[in-house]
Design goal:
Blueprint: H1 8-23, H2 31-50, H3 59-74, H4 98-101, H5 105-129, H6 137-146, H7 149-157, H8 161-176, H9 180-193, H10 198-206, H11 210-230, H12 233-244, H13 260-268, H14 282-305, H15 313-330, H16 343-351, H17 360-373, H18 377-387, H19 395-418
Helix pairs in contact: 1-2, 1-5, 1-6, 2-5, 5-8, 6-16, 8-9, 9-11, 10-11, 10-15, 13-14, 14-15, 15-19, 17-19
Length: 424
């Protein structure tokens, strides 16, 4: 498929193996046979994944993570340049890559790619198992994962989004088991890697899930202490100034920024699709403020009227992903690969563990949103060149906007079904 990366056929392999497991599940009932299956899968994927890396790929790893790990122990002053190009995470995060930075660049790239590649197998498994998808829909969900443009983009970039997605799935599995401290720890770790997850992780504070909040605070506190001990305060300040505050109020119109700010910047400040922060025009500021208010109102309604005892994991997950979608829509930057995370609530919808009476229009909206959310980056660029319309560069934004409306509708339906006399 020309609009996907070189890695697409190999991405199919771990997802195909997960699908084969579900197809043969009855024949793999014996625990020893299951273990043999998974071990054989891991050996096969390790052999394939180690030899996949191409020199022109893994852009984020080679540009950011690898050199971040080298600079944090060798040249702190060079970790962040004036425009925060290269390594963009908080300084302490670079220590995770120090072991790889001591290896030759090519070998480090292979090992990093392999870690993310192997995560695709449990990711595919838990996307089905954790969302209770049954029957032929299991293979539909796996197909959506395999052909997801943002996932393909993350793999090609050498990013960590698929690893974070696995963490989110495991966090909700942990919550369903009542392991709330562990849930908070996992969400805390995921939020530190992907900032748009910070706001939805804070949702548990609003809902009074204090053990989940406590687990998140443990991670945040540990990172804070280690940052003060291992990283000079000045370097943390430089990161905050150059990589966070520099973007405040200044939109980026790059094609892979799929938030509201990127969408509006491409409309109101045409002609610049680069990654440099732009000076906003009055029209952009007005449209941005109106858009944020309109997007925030339904999220606030969910937080206010969704209060009450007796919530099940499904309800927490549904509200969490409503806030996550809102966060992606309104973040200063939401890179294309972030939107693969929305496959989790899409699979939840298809699993329908609550037996909600979905309407036909809801199925249609799900299909439309998934088509837009799954568009590969190169296809969006090709459509833009063909039509000269910046809307073609905003497929994930438009898809997530439709998906936001769908999730809000599911929330209203779940509330009405649970409380038939409710007028909310």
């Amino acid at each position: 498929m020309p609009y996907f990366s070189f890695y697409l056929p190999f991405t199919f392999l771990p997802i195909l193996l997960a699908g084969l497991y579900f197809f043969l599940e009855d024949r793999l009932a014996d625990r020893r046979i299951r273990w043999m299956w998974w071990i054989a899968c891991i050996i096969l994927l390790t052999f394939v994944g180690y030899y996949l890396v191409q020199d022109h790929a893994l852009y984020d790893f080679f540009k950011g993570y690898y050199h971040g790990g080298r600079k944090i122990v060798r040249n702190l002053d060079a970790l962040y340049d004036e425009t925060c190009y290269g390594f963009t995470n908080f300084p302490l995060f670079a220590y995770l890559f120090v072991p790889l930075s001591d290896l030759p660049k090519e070998l480090a790239g292979r090992i990093f790619f392999l870690l993310g590649y192997l995560c695709l197998l449990p990711l595919a498994y838990w996307l089905v198992r954790g969302t209770n998808v049954r029957g032929w829909m299991r293979f539909l969900v796996l197909g959506l994962l395999a052909l997801n443009g943002p996932l393909d983009y993350s793999i090609w970039l050498g990013n960590t989004t698929q690893i974070v997605m696995l963490l989110v799935l495991l966090a909700f599995f942990s919550l369903s088991r009542g392991w709330e401290w562990l849930t908070g720890i996992i969400f805390g770790a995921a939020g530190l890697v992907k900032l748009p997850l910070v706001l939805p992780s804070g949702y548990f504070f609003v809902r009074g899930k204090w053990k989940v909040v406590g687990g998140g605070l443990l991670i945040a506190g540990a990172v804070l202490i280690l940052s003060l001990v291992l990283v000079p305060l000045e370097l943390n300040s430089i990161w905050l100034e150059r990589c966070v505050l520099l973007m405040a109020g200044k939109p980026t119109a790059a094609y892979n920024n799929q938030s509201l700010s990127g969408f509006l910047a491409r409309i109101f400040m045409p002609g610049n699709l680069g990654w440099d922060p732009l000076i906003p025009t009055p029209a952009y500021i007005a449209a941005s403020n109106i858009g944020r208010v309109l997007l925030a109102m339904p999220a606030l309604i969910v937080l206010i009227f969704g209060r009450g005892p007796g919530k099940r994991t499904f309800h927490y997950a549904l509200e969490f992903f409503i806030i996550l979608t809102f966060s992606l829509l309104t973040s200063p930057i939401a890179w294309t690969h972030y939107f693969v995370l929305l496959l989790i609530p899409a699979a939840m919808y298809l699993g329908n563990v609550e037996g909600l009476p979905y309407k036909v229009w809801m199925h249609i909206m799900l299909a439309l949103s998934l088509i837009l959310l799954s568009v590969p980056k190169d296809l969006a660029l090709a459509l833009f060149e063909w039509t000269d319309s910046t809307l073609m560069l905003s497929t994930q934004f438009l898809g997530s906007l439709l998906f936001y409306i769908l999730l809000l509708s599911v929330w209203a339906l779940a509330r009405k079904t649970e409380n038939p006399d409710s007028t909310g």
